[in-house]
Structures are given as structure tokens and as C-alpha cells.
Design brief:
By secondary structure, the protein is an alpha+beta fold. The protein folds into two domains: 77 residues, Gyrase A, domain 2 (2-Layer Sandwich); 78 residues, Heterotetrameric sarcosine oxidase (Alpha-Beta Plaits). Helices cover 25% and strands 37% of the residues. The strands form two sheets. Strands 1-7-10-9-8 form a five-stranded antiparallel beta sheet. A five-stranded antiparallel beta sheet has the order 3-4-5-2-6. The longest helix has 13 residues. The termini are close together.
Amino acid sequence: MNCYRARVIRRPLEGWISLQADAPSLAQIEAASGIRLPSAIGMHVSNAAVEVFRTGPDECLLRFGIAQEADMLTRLRLAAGDANAAIALVSDASVGFDVIGEDASLVLAQGCPLDLDGMPADVCARTLLGRVPMLVARIEGGFALWVERSHASHVQAWLEAGAAGTR
């Protein structure tokens, strides 16, 4: 049995907005809101108070402090104007975890098919942990991942057992 040099930390509630729009509308929203959006699927960028994940050709997920939820929603809706866009508050839909430490990728590799060791800092990916869909991104010292709220307890137990080497 191995004990990995990794810690699992459940993230506090975060603000999330799903932004779905065609390319011209995304460009309009980016220009009007001042929030830089990733140009390619699987990329993420950090702005002053918001991190943006490009999860599909017409979709971005924006993550920010929960206290900015109302302001961010208003800002994006005003920026969208009459653009062909769907802007939805989805903060309550997911739970995040940080897996931090020298062996963070080894803990996740027990159930994730991606080669996380080679994942650059500006990349995000939708993948699986076991059979649970997740969004994963590299952070300083390890990885951040988000799963649907209904899977949070299972994923937390899975990650903690993996880090302890009892998985």
C-alpha cells in the first residue's frame, strides 16, 4: 500500500456562469465586458477576478468569487445585449476539489485516463474520474477539478482513499 504525497482540499462555494454563444456573439461579449475569453477549446485564461474555461466551440464556463455572482451575471447580460447568447448562473451545480502535492497526478491517474503530468498550466479538460465526469485544470502545486454536486461525496471519498493509498 502506497501513501501518496498529496492532499485533497474541498473548495469553498464558487460562482459559476455558463456562457453559450456563437463566435460573433462571444467576440461581442468579450469586447463589451472586458473579460478575455479563451480562443480555443480546452484552454483557460485568468482575468483579474474571473477564470474562464473554454469547454466547447460555443461554450465557456466562468469561475469567480461567490460574492461577485450578481455583478458578474449583470455584466455579462449587459455585454451580450441582443447577441445570440445563453447566460446561466450555475454556481450550485458543481463542487470543486484541489489535489495538491508532489504525487497529485498519481492520485488522479488511478481513475483519470489523461496524462496529467504533461498538462500545461493554460489547459483544461473535461474527462472522467472513474465514471464521474469532471473538469480539470492545473493549478500551482497540483490540480483543481470540479464535479456535479450529486457526485461530490463519492469523489471526495475516492480522492482521499487514493491519496492515502487505500484505493
